[in-house]
């Protein structure tokens, strides 16, 4: 395990952090997402790491909660102090990726902080009952794959959730084909 928050790491600049994270192995990248200090350069470093397709759902949610979204969840965007705008944008991106099924569920991944995730989902449900919504609302059917033992979540997984996760995989496949320069048009005989 790499000590991402060791003393000399905090002295490095943003470019050095990006260089290290881009060269990290998948295991080291997972460790970085789970342990990176959000007081350093979260938007460029974690933003790049969170966009990688090898990051699993439990890791992504751990990174999300490390950004302490509770601080700004019920604030209007304009009320978030400017110094925290980069972190809030990163939290926006992570939440969007979670909700669209970008992150896969890996049986071999380290576990998510289940009590904290349960608490987040319970607060979301309570907000919904009161007719309010926070800035970051996690799709309960997607995160339920990590909370199978939660009473309100058991049995709520549906074909819609499975389809949403599959749709995310299809989108990633198309993006990879386009990135590789492959034509998606059918090849018809001349």
UniProtKB/TrEMBL annotation:
Q: Which domain of life is it from?
A: Bacteria
Name the UniProt record assigns to this protein? Uncharacterized protein
């Amino acid at each position: 395990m790499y000590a991402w928050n060791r003393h000399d790491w905090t002295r490095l600049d943003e470019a050095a952090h990006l260089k290290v994270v881009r060269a990290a192995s998948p295991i080291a990248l997972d460790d970085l997402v789970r342990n990176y200090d959000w007081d350093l350069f979260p938007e460029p470093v974690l933003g790049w790491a969170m966009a990688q397709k090898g990051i699993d759902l439990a890791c992504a949610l751990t990174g999300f909660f490390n950004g302490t979204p509770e601080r700004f969840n019920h604030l209007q965007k304009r009320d978030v102090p400017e110094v925290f705008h980069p972190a809030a944008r990163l939290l926006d991106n992570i939440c969007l990726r979670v909700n669209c099924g970008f992150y896969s569920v890996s049986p071999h991944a380290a576990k998510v902080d289940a009590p904290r995730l349960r608490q987040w989902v319970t607060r979301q449900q309570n907000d919904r009952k009161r007719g309010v919504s926070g800035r970051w609302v996690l799709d309960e059917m997607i995160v339920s794959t990590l909370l199978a033992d939660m009473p309100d979540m058991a049995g709520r997984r549906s074909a819609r959730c499975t389809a949403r996760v599959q749709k995310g995989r299809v989108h990633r496949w198309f993006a990879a084909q386009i990135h590789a320069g492959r034509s998606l048009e059918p090849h018809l005989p001349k």
